[in-house]
Amino acid sequence: MQDAYTPRPEHHFTFGLWTVGNPGRDPFGEPVRAPIPPARIVHKLAELGAYGVNLHDNDLVPSDAAASERDRIVRDFTAALQATGLQVPMATTNLFSDPAFRDGAFTSNDARVRAYALQKTLAAIDLGVELGASMYVFWGGREGVETNAAKDARSALGWYRDAINFLCDYVRAQRYDMRFALEAKPNEPRGDIFLPTTGHMLAFIYTLDHPEMVGLNPEVAHEQMAGLDCSHAVAQALDAGKLFHIDLNGQKLGRFDQDLRFGSDDPKGAFFLVKLLEDARWPGMRHFDSHAYRTEDEDGVWDFASGSMRTYLILKERAERFNADPEIQQLLAELRTRGGGGGGDKPAERIVFSAERARALQAETFDLPAIRRQGYAYERLDQLTMELLLGVR
Q1: What's the pLDDT tens digit per position in 139-169?
Q2: I want to staple 7 with a disulfide (CB 3.0 to 4.6 A). Which of 49, 193, 376, 388 is the partner?
Q3: pLDDT over threshold 60, residue 343
Q4: Domain ends where: 323, 352, 367?
Q5: 3-class secondary structure, 54
Q6: pLDDT tens digit string along 240-269?
């Protein structure tokens, strides 16, 4: 049944082959679902209204595939894309599953492993470009330590920097239309992962040779695993012009990396993230890096995919209601007036230094007793937000 929350390609929703293709394996149990062929995933996602499908290199082509087998797989996958109109906006490399990467990929103590990681990534970039991807994500799942005795973090970051610089230069030399997005995570599968938050990654980007090519791929669950508010990380990325991609999912604080369906665990947090993206008119892909519960069969997988997109659209509609709600907007207008914005949508005046401004500030008298008595009505604002989300406004 079609309704206001039915996904369409123009909503730019994407999934990974590894997300809807997750067989339900976990550290304590074997797979519960049969593998879904990539071409079937393409056709089903297109049927559900998605825009695209993303992939690690080995999600599509087994690492031991001969050249002829690789070409056949890619040819069949491309045919499915052409038949459905589904796009491949993003690609990435699996640098964490192979036992060779037990000590990391770009940050392994073994120079042979670092070289192999580059070789594997070069081939995966070529594959991504062949399929039409213009974004390439790097998640350093094994780039870390269990003991600091094992590795000098300064050397490891230098190796990481060298790898990204090398790959940027490769893309430039090949004249590929591709940018890179770095994805942070604090831990798991390593005890501690280098560059554990979006803020760490942002600082790292400005040490690269081509920082203009490299941005961020914040993930909801990864920021929440660090006890942080993902919308703040995304806001910082937007402010810096570095939000190149985003991974949407859910996560309960203090748990393993759960990759829950977006919005299923924290609707209010998901609401403010959706509102941030929509208010900013961010043009990028809304990628769901999550998977169905292990309890589900294949029908449940497609329920999960459909539900992910519907939840986003429901929250998008709630954000529009928030922006149009007279009582909420009156409270926000009063705050803007207090902030020097003059009410309405007029932004607050920015403080810019001048000698005259500094002297005026030094001479200004503040009514501190009045300031100290003043409340902000945030309880009321939050309650109105909750009522809106719960459908009673």
Answers
A1: 999 999 999 999 999 999 999 999 999 999 9
A2: 49
A3: no
A4: 323
A5: strand
A6: 999 999 999 999 999 999 999 999 999 999
- What is the 8-class DSSP label of residue 256? S
Examine residue 246 and state whether it is found in any structural domain, yes or no: yes
- As a residue count, the chain comes to 393
Kindly state whether residue 373 falls inside one of the protein's structural domains: yes
Q: Tell me the pairing of strands 192-193 and 144-145.
A: antiparallel
The mean pLDDT of the chain is: 96
Is residue 309 within 8 Å of residue 50, measured between CB atoms? yes
Separation in Å, CA 123 to CA 26, 48, 91: 29, 31, 11
Same domain, 95 and 173: yes
Cα distance between residue 245 and residue 136, in whole Å:
9
Q: Nearest 5°: phi and psi at 339?
A: -85, 5
Say if residue 365 is in the same domain as residue 241: no
pLDDT per residue as tens digits for the range 179-192: 999 999 999 999 99
Amino acid identity of residue 260, one-letter, is: L
Tokens representing 200 are 């760490």
- Tokens representing residue 111 in the block: 């120079």
Contacts of 177 (CB under 8 A, 6+ apart): 134
Report the distance separating Cα 170 and Cα 154, nearest Å.
24
The reported pTM is 0.96
- CA–CA separation, 240 vs 273, rounded Å? 17
- DSSP string for 182-222: EE--SSSSSSEESS-SHHHHHHHHTTSS-GGGEEE--BHHH
Name the least confident of 88-92, 346-350, 366-370.
346-350
275 with 341, same domain: the answer is no
Where in the sequence is the domain holding 171, given as residue range(s)? 9-323
Q: Mind telling me the catalytic residues?
A: 56, 59
Q: In what order do the strands lie in the sheet with 13-16?
A: 214-216, 179-183, 135-139, 90-92, 52-56, 13-16, 286-288, 247-248
* Contact present, 388 and 328 (Cβ < 8 Å): yes
3 part of a folded domain: no
Instruction: Give the end of a domain, one of 323, 340, 368.
Output: 323
Examine residue 175 and state whether it is found in any structural domain, yes or no: yes
Q: CA-to-CA distance for 122 and 145, rounded, in angstroms? A: 25
